[in-house]
Design brief:
The structure holds two protein chains of two kinds.
Chain A: E1 10-18, H1 25-28, H2 48-53, E2 69-72, H3 84-92, E3 96-99, H4 104-112, E4 117-119, H5 122-134, E5 139-143, E6 148-151, E7 154-157, H6 162-170, H7 176-180, H8 185-191, H9 194-197
Parallel strand pairs in A: 1-2, 2-3, 3-4
Antiparallel strand pairs in A: 1-5, 5-6, 6-7
Chain B: H1 5-12, E1 14-17, E2 23-26, E3 29-32, H2 38-47, E4 57-60, H3 77-93, E5 97-98, H4 108-115, E6 123-126, E7 140-143, H5 146-155, E8 157-160, E9 164-171, H6 180-191, E10 199-204, H7 206-210, H8 213-221, E11 230-233, H9 237-243, H10 253-265, E12 275-280, E13 287-289, E14 297-299, H11 313-326, E15 341-344, H12 346-349, H13 352-362, E16 372-375, H14 380-388, H15 391-398, E17 401-402, E18 423-426, E19 442-445, H16 448-457
Parallel strand pairs in B: 3-4, 3-6, 4-5, 6-7, 9-10, 9-12, 10-11, 15-16, 15-18, 16-17, 18-19
Antiparallel strand pairs in B: 1-2, 2-8, 13-14
The chains are: A alpha/beta, B alpha/beta.
């Protein structure tokens, strides 16, 4: 139903492990880079302060340059709703994320950009992080349709809510067009609400 | 079957079920600010679309607004450019804009309720995570990203999955000197910063029932810090008394019809929740965060935790990272921690009652030597009301700076920022690394009266000893 260019059934690529829980969007993109009226060039500043304070940050590790699948812990993307955070990850080259869990606004923003976020058990996440660090040249696959992550010799069961999965697999994640199809039904529901009618 | 407010409001706003299984939800109020909207308006232009319901859309400027001198053009050319864009976008698309000259400008989550734009039973979206604030009036309010701002502008709807619902009951009563901020910080500390993933929070119980609307706004504001995108309180007499007479609230016969509808929306006895959790009001004390997320907090009489006591490796690593960043020592008491900056303001604690509580502590005392102390009202209306009762003079006499309205040092997008390793006592909502403008700056979150007490003492102290 969607445009083929928008379909996100499987994403293949090298993996980038980023350990730690509760990594907030202020860390992904500091607020000073929100003083912009476009998202152009924002990828250069992803994790800028963390990278400044940690010379061995995974995003600067030569082994992981060109990786496109990010592996994270629990509650990734918590805090501010800034879409600048997934835009910065996307600008750097991230195409899919596998994690223990995701903050909801961040998750929704990623889906709006066609970036699948899949959850997995923390034991599997820790294995993935260790394996990705051990064999950074290995390509793995995030299979959105089958809810699986394949890396090396293992296939891990992963999760994504039905709605988001459907949007990615069908290529309908760029929601404006789908929402507009409701047509006048939007105005009908609006005018049924007492506060819209003026009580 | 008895239903919750979430059930009733969700159903009333459902346009249709999408092929993905998500709900297409009508958004009754869309609030817009300068930071997360310029790209959305540009996407509309690129797609040849218009704003579907400009009369249900309101804009203000808060994040980048300077609070020392607000003369245009702003000193910061990037901030000025954002203001120019918002002014042009709202004009081109016919969206009402509460700008600096309107007398109604302020933090978007302060002005919504104070203007009566925020009402029970609404769905409210804004490109800001603290949109959960508006749930205090019995609305379903949540933060969205810029692509979703575009979707709401273009269609007045969003594609969403209905959340699960957890009822949080705060029982008994609060002790003297214990505030709404301490209640929500305690909830986040106990349930965890990721405890609310997938849930909306309904707050109730005797402590919440007795709270003023401004206290409820503080509680709902920080729902998102506990990972709940939505937090709400059922509408009651406190809600209606707060709304009556506000500029955008209904009046006359419409008022009575509105109250009847709002009353009918409250969750009914016997309604089903996915989870119910209780907190005893008596167990809550003034809280201070010691770490790098809002769940890393202790009572003001508490000590920095010891990573050696962690149950898992991940927990130990998280404690070590936070303690290292904050330069604390395990077992050290939080009281007595020297501060460099005191910040009173933000969408969490920048309302009139917050300023009154802080002024009560500041009155007749002096800010400690070497402490930079700022009071930033949440809106122009809050500033005028505070000035009418002389609070600005109380603060100035004590050595605080009295500023114009905006988000200010909550996130340091204007000139109000920490420098280097400075430590702030802050009435805001986030203590993330780098949050207050300096990548290595440190934040201790607490109630506005605790911030005022810390400003006077030059260090973290128990405000209860100063009442």
């Amino acid at each position: 139903m969607g445009d083929n260019a928008y379909v996100r059934k499987q994403i293949a690529g090298r993996f980038l492990p980023l350990p730690g829980n509760d990594i907030d969007t202020d860390r992904i993109i500091p607020a000073r880079y929100l003083k912009v009226v476009t998202f152009a060039g924002i990828g250069e500043h992803v994790f800028e302060d963390d990278r400044e304070q940690n010379r061995h940050h995974p995003f600067d590790d030569p082994r992981f340059q060109g990786a496109s699948i990010l592996v994270v812990g629990l509650n990734f993307g918590c805090g501010s709703s800034r879409e600048h955070a997934p835009q910065a990850l996307k600008g750097w080259g991230i195409r899919a994320i596998v994690g223990g869990s995701f903050a909801e606004i961040f998750f929704g923003n990623c889906i709006s950009l066609g970036i699948p976020c899949l959850t997995a058990d923390m034991a599997d996440i820790e294995w993935l992080m260790a394996e990705a660090a051990r064999s950074p040249k290995t390509e793995g696959v995030v299979d959105v349709e089958a809810r699986l992550v394949r890396f090396g010799e293992r296939t891990i069961t992963a999760g994504i809510p039905d709605g988001a999965r459907s949007q990615l697999v069908e290529g309908t994640w760029d929601a404006t067009g789908v929402l507009l199809q409701a047509g006048d039904q939007i105005e009908r529901v609006g005018s049924s609400l007492p506060y819209v009618r003026g009580f | 079957m008895p239903e919750t407010l979430l059930d009733k409001v969700w159903r009333a706003h459902t346009v249709r079920t999408l092929p993905s299984g998500q709900t297409q939800l009508f958004i009754g109020l869309h609030l817009v600010h300068e930071v997360t909207s310029p790209q959305a308006f540009q996407m509309l232009r690129d797609a040849g679309l218009t704003v579907r319901m400009p009369s249900r859309t309101f804009a203000t400027a808060d994040h980048i607004v300077p609070t020392a001198s607000q003369a245009r053009p702003f000193k910061d050319p990037m901030a000025e450019e954002m203001m120019v864009h918002l002014t042009r976008n709202t004009k081109d698309f016919g969206v009402p804009f509460f700008d600096l000259a309107s007398g109604r400008q302020g933090i978007v989550h302060v002005i919504g309720p104070e203007l009566g734009l925020t009402q029970p039973g609404m769905t409210i979206a804004c490109g800001d995570s603290h949109t959960s604030t508006h749930g205090a009036l019995g609305a379903l309010a949540f933060g969205i990203g810029t692509s979703q701002v575009r979707d709401v502008l273009a269609t007045q709807t969003l594609a969403l999955a209905k959340p699960k619902l957890r009822r949080i009951e705060v029982t008994g009563a609060l002790g003297k000197g214990v505030s709404a901020k301490d209640v929500i910080l305690t909830i986040i500390q106990r349930l965890g910063v990721n405890g609310g993933v997938g849930y909306a929070y309904e707050y109730g119980g005797p402590v919440i029932d007795r709270m003023t609307m401004e206290e409820r706004l503080t509680v709902c504001n920080m729902s998102i810090e506990g990972a709940a995108r939505i937090g709400y309180v059922n509408p009651d007499r406190t809600t209606f008394e707060y709304l009556k007479g506000r500029p955008y609230a209904p009046s006359g016969a419409a008022w009575d019809r509105a109250v009847a509808w709002w009353t009918s929306l409250a969750s009914e006895p016997g309604a089903r929740y996915d989870d119910v959790w209780q907190l005893a009001g008596e167990s809550i004390v003034p809280v201070v965060t010691w770490g790098i997320n809002p769940g890393q907090s202790i009572g003001v009489d508490g000590r920095i935790p010891d990573p050696a006591s962690a149950k898992t490796d991940l927990e130990r690593q998280a404690l070590e990272e936070a303690i290292d960043f904050m330069s604390f020592k395990p077992g050290q008491p939080i009281a007595g921690t020297k501060i460099d900056v005191a910040f009173i303001g933000s969408c969490t604690n920048g309302r009139l009652s917050d300023l009154r509580a802080a002024a009560q502590i500041a009155k007749g005392r002096k800010v400690a030597r070497g402490v930079r102390a700022l009071v930033v009202p949440g809106s122009q209306q809050v500033a005028r009301a505070a000035e009418a009762e002389g609070l600005h003079e109380v603060f100035r006499e004590a050595g605080f700076e009295w500023r114009g309205a905006g988000c200010s040092m909550c996130l340091g997008m204007n000139e109000d920022q920490l420098r280097g390793r400075e430590i702030s006592a802050s009435s805001s909502n986030r203590n993330f690394k780098g949050r207050q403008g300096s990548p290595t700056g440190r934040t201790l979150l607490m109630s506005p009266q605790m911030v005022a007490a810390a400003a006077v003492a030059g260090a973290v102290v128990d405000v209860r000893e100063m009442l």
